[in-house]
């Protein structure tokens, strides 16, 4: 049975069984069958229903308080008798109804387009659709289609909430500074340069193992990567690859290579350079002289400091003299309220029991800790956003744990802190971004426009994509997904979030906290190809963890932080060349960035997943082959309103196809894909 017929039977689930079988036997496509079947017959044809908040279906995805929102809903032509928008308005706590009217047919003549308008107000609203064919009713919201009215999963309207357009339209490149490139050998941390927590520093040669010679001292291994190195390689990131957003793992002074135990939030670590080095790097990232004008995001480790921080003062590893005693040294310290002690000084709240990472206590609104981290003009958050630095945003480490009293966060106090932090960030730069680290459903911080702009998309991209392509989760544990389950997962995680948040979620194949994607996929470079194609065409901000673009190997921390192999950083490496091509394609087609998303095909038997991305200018069908074999795939592109006789071009190969019977049939190599555009 062909792929198209399998898809047809999925779409025709509400037709009589005899008709479904007859269509399958005859080989008729859904494109021709739907028009014949759709009528006012007390039966809503679910296969014809579609809406999302793409530019063709939502007139104002980021409305102001004075912007009415006109919504468009698609049905099969002649299929329904009426349609309504039902929306909940937070201003009065009531549901309201808007009757929709027929507006037009699509280009193929297969579909009717209905419209209705939600009036402009400043209040948050949540909407769903009621679709009627005589006595039959279907309901449609962001979570899907149901026969009875849903109680969750509605679309969002949040007046006044806007996520940065550069995040929606950009490609991010994540750098772990010590392992990227050594641009200044004069600041290298040498063997025995200092001892911290019983571990003497070890200088390892570039390209050698990341494991320390002394057990338990992996954080004391240094390779010499620094900010000058990042600066010198901006041409590779921005021009060769085409990425325009740089995200740096922590760069502030700290005794370890990872620097998640900050000693001083106001000083760049000497092994990475100086504040002036950072200022130069920021200016060069912003410049258009070495590739596209870009943006830079720093890692904010604000849940905890290091125990060598002058605010705490439990350990020292250098000659820095603190102006005042820290909380560990004296209860009279001006920083005593910054931390939570159960029994001073030896028992205190930490990050997951790690004594070298004492947890910051944010106290009540207006506390000294809040003012120091984000609340004042001289605070950490605002200092680096302001001139002469002017960074473009913060990634918030362990963001759900920030709280008062040494608790584990994820409570009302955490949300209050995040709301205040957002106010502080946007007061300096309204176009700056806030990206939270959260591994599960981050919607609590993202669903009302008052906290983060986006989050690291472990839940909505990294894990499901790894399970489908590699057969393991992001930690390497066995877990396999078939395309239909993958699609359901992705639909559910998109439905959790407003559309402009979906578009700024950072979609990465791996990070500094996961094993490498290539390793999870058994070293099969073709699976890296497939992951890259998926990453660059899906909803969200593609984020490349340094080296993933060439298939860098690595197990769990610290092996996932190997030094970059610069012999691979050329387009003679096929994965690097593909990354360059994909970023160019993404930059050329706004539909891949802010267009609609529509599932076109889920074939569990042949492991095929296809989806559409489209806007007013282009229609793109992305076909992904999860098997190792070349597969012939028939894609129902009429669902994107591609007309018969029109041509599509595979942007990866240049091959042209003609739409016939509402479909395009093509061969797709194993663990690869096609990007069909018109």
Automatic annotation (TrEMBL):
Domain Glycosyl hydrolase family 13 catalytic stretches:
174-586
Q: Which GO terms describe its molecular function?
A: hydrolase activity
Keyword annotations? Glycosidase, Hydrolase, Signal
Q: Tell me the Gene3D superfamilies matching this sequence.
A: Glycosidases (3.20.20.80), Golgi alpha-mannosidase II (2.60.40.1180), Immunoglobulins (2.60.40.10)
Which regions span the lipid bilayer? none
Signal peptide residue numbers: 1-37
- State if NADP is listed as a keyword: no
Official protein name in the record:
Glycoside hydrolase family 13 protein
Q: What is the native source organism of this protein?
A: Dyella agri
């Amino acid at each position: 049975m062909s792929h198209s017929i399998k898809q047809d039977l999925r779409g025709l689930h509400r037709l009589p069984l005899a008709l479904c079988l007859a269509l399958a036997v005859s080989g008729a496509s859904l494109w021709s069958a739907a028009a014949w079947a759709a009528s006012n017959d007390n039966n809503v044809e679910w296969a014809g229903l579609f809406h999302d908040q793409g530019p063709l279906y939502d007139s104002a995805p980021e409305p102001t308080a004075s912007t009415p929102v006109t919504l468009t809903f698609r049905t099969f032509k002649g299929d329904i008798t009426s349609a309504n928008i039902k929306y909940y308005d937070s201003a009065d706590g009531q549901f309201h109804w808007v009757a929709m009217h027929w507006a037009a047919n699509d280009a193929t003549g297969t579909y009717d387009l209905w419209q209705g308008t939600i009036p402009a107000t400043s209040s948050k609203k949540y909407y769903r659709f009621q679709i009627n064919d005589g006595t039959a009713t279907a309901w449609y919201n962001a979570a899907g289609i149901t026969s009875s009215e849903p109680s969750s999963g509605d679309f969002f309207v949040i007046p006044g909430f806007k996520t940065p357009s550069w995040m929606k339209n950009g490609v991010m490149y994540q750098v772990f500074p010590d392992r990227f490139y050594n641009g200044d050998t004069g600041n290298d941390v040498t063997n025995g340069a200092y001892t911290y927590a019983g571990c003497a520093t070890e200088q390892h040669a570039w390209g050698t193992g990341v494991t320390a010679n002394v057990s338990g001292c992996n954080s004391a291994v240094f390779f010499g990567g620094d900010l000058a190195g990042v600066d010198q390689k901006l041409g590779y990131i921005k021009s060769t690859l085409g990425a325009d957003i740089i995200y740096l793992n922590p760069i502030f002074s700290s005794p370890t290579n990872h620097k998640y135990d900050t000693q001083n939030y106001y000083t760049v670590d000497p092994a990475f350079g100086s504040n002036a080095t950072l200022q130069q790097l920021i200016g060069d990232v912003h410049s258009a002289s070495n590739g596209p004008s870009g943006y830079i995001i720093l890692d904010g480790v604000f849940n905890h400091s290091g125990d060598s921080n002058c605010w705490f003062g439990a350990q020292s590893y250098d000659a820095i003299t603190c102006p005042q005693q820290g909380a560990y040294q004296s209860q009279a310290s001006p920083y005593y309220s910054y931390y939570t002690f159960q029994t001073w000084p030896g028992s205190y709240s930490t990050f997951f029991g790690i004594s070298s990472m004492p947890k910051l206590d944010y106290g009540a609104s207006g506390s000294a800790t809040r003012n120091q981290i984000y609340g004042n003009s001289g605070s950490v958050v605002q200092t680096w956003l302001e001139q002469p630095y002017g960074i473009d945003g913060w990634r918030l480490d362990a963001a759900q744990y920030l709280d008062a009293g040494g608790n584990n966060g994820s409570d009302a106090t955490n949300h209050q802190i995040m709301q205040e932090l957002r106010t502080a960030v946007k007061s300096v730069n309204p176009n700056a971004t806030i990206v939270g680290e959260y591994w599960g459903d981050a919607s609590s911080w993202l669903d009302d426009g008052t906290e983060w702009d986006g989050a690291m998309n472990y839940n909505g991209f990294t894990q499901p994509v790894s399970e489908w392509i590699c057969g393991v989760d992001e930690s390497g544990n066995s877990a396999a997904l078939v395309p239909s389950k993958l699609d359901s997962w992705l639909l559910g995680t998109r439905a959790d979030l407003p559309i402009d948040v979906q578009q700024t979620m950072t979609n990465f194949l791996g990070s500094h906290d996961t094993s490498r994607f290539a390793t999870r996929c058994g070293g099969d470079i073709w699976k890296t190809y497939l992951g890259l194609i998926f990453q660059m065409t899906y909803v969200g901000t593609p984020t490349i963890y340094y080296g993933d673009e060439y298939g860098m190997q690595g197990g769990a921390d610290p092996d996932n932080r190997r030094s970059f192999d610069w012999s691979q950083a050329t387009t003679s490496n096929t994965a690097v060349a593909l990354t360059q091509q994909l970023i160019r394609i993404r930059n050329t087609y706004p539909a891949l960035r802010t267009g609609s998303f529509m599932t076109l095909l889920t074939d569990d038997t042949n492991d095929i997943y296809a989806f559409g991305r489209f806007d007013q200018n282009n229609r793109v069908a992305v076909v992904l082959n999860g098997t190792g074999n070349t597969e012939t795939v028939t894609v129902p592109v009429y669902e994107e309103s591609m007309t018969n006789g029109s041509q599509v071009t595979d942007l990866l190969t240049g091959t042209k196809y003609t739409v016939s019977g509402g479909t395009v049939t093509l061969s797709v190599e194993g663990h690869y894909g096609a990007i069909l555009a018109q």
